[in-house]
Every structure is written in C-alpha cells, then in structure tokens.
User: Fold this.
Amino acid sequence: MASSVMNKPEMKDFFTENFKHDLVNMSKDTVANVRLALARVLRNHFKQMDGTFIYDAKINQALATLAADQEVDVRSVVAQIKDLYGGVHDDASSESS
Assistant:
C-alpha cells in the first residue's frame, strides 16, 4: 500500500502525513525481513524516473541506515540503488518533514 501511494507524485502530501514517519522508522526495526521489505520498497521507488521522494532527506537517511545494516541481503538491495544513482541523494534544500 505505502509503495503504491509513495510512487504517485500527486499523493506526496498524503504519504507524508500518513506513512512517511512509520516507513522511515522501519529502517531501524529489529526484524531483518521488515528492513529488507523496506529496502525493496525504496529500491522500487528510486527506480522510477520521477521518484517523488528521491531527494527527501528523511528517506535518504533511512537508506543510509539500511546501507549500514548488519544483514547482507538488506545492504545488497540498497547497493542496487547506489548503483543506479552513484549513491543516495541528499539535497539539503528538500523538505524533511
């Protein structure tokens, strides 16, 4: 659900209000499969040419947390994002709410 809303630019405000905080917090979840699922959702979002949250500081902070994850599967998915873009995007002028 969050992924389908996240990938629609016209739904950015709705996603931010209802999902973003919880989604970002999942990057620190104690269950590896939760972090892996989050990494996959973010990878799919970043693959989109018009990824709405591609420059979002909090989303990129979650990616940085996942990139340092203890589980190799999680790091592997995040590495695919880095391969696409040469690293995660961190635009200081973007909204981080």
